[in-house]
Amino acid sequence: MGLMTGKRGIIVGLANNKSIAWGIAQQLHEAGAEIAYTYLNEALEKRVRPLATSLGAKIILPCDVQDEAQQTAVFAELEKQWGKIDFVVHAVAFANREDLKNPFSQTSREGFQLALDVSAYSLVSMTRAALPIMNEGGSIVTMSYLGAMRAIPGYNIMGVAKAALEASVRYLAAELGPQKIRVNAISAGPIKTLAASGVGNFNEKLRVMEARSPLKRTITQEEVGKASVYLLSDLASGVTGEIHYVDGGFSIAEG
Q1: What is the pLDDT of residue 209?
Q2: How many whole angstroms separate alpha carbon 99 and alpha carbon 123?
Q3: Which residues lie closer than 8 Å to 175 by C-beta, 6 or more apart?
Q4: Which residues contact 239 (CB under 8 A, 6 or more apart)?
């Protein structure tokens, strides 16, 4: 019997086998969870579906987080097939490449709105869609980064979006606590993912992480996955509204 045996939930944001969401999926599966997955479009479906089916997934659905109707449809399908769910993993973020590369003061209004919508507001809209079918004791986890609290070179608009995401975690946790639903974020250290490729000087960030971390190495997908299992399981039944750092001590070492 694993920590998540008998638990059902959904992961939104899996893109490929380098995704942080993939590390989470593997650990949740190993812990006994039954998982549904979403994909953004047909191109990503070709990557997501083989990964999801390799872990025994039976529910794989399209979901653009900017489309409220699609989000509603996803959770309606989960209700139809499962009735209730126990967890949601929100691993979605996006910003235009030019808004990451340009000086922050040059961020376009459209780019600002897009980054905040996809990376932060989607947690709010997804939570709203999930609430009617979430069991008491349910858990929601999202992904953040140190750039939410410190100015990280090259992170720019995404840092502002992650700050909004972390604030949203606290407000949602305060609101949903009486319903026995927990909301937390994991702030992972730098990991080579598809999304990370758009961040300037990313390899330098990895080098700094290795040099300054007490562990003297970068963090792994597996370790983020293990932290996620903890926050999604009953082991963390008293933990909500927290930003959980899984970064080898990078945030401490730099401070």
Answers
A1: 65
A2: 21
A3: none
A4: 182, 184, 231
Q: pLDDT tens across 101-114, in order?
A: 899 999 999 999 99
Round to whole Å and give the CA distance between 238 and 231: 10
Cβ(118)–Cβ(71) below 8 Å: no
Active site residue 171: no
**Beta-carbon contacts of residue 130 (< 8 Å; ≥ 6 apart):** 10, 75, 85, 88, 140
Residues 31-46 pLDDT 10s: 999 999 999 999 999 9
Q: Are 127 and 183 in contact (CB under 8 A)?
A: yes
Q: Does the annotation count 145 as an active-site position?
A: yes
37, 39, 145, 245: the catalytic one is 145
Find the catalytic residue in 37, 39, 121, 155.
Answer: 155
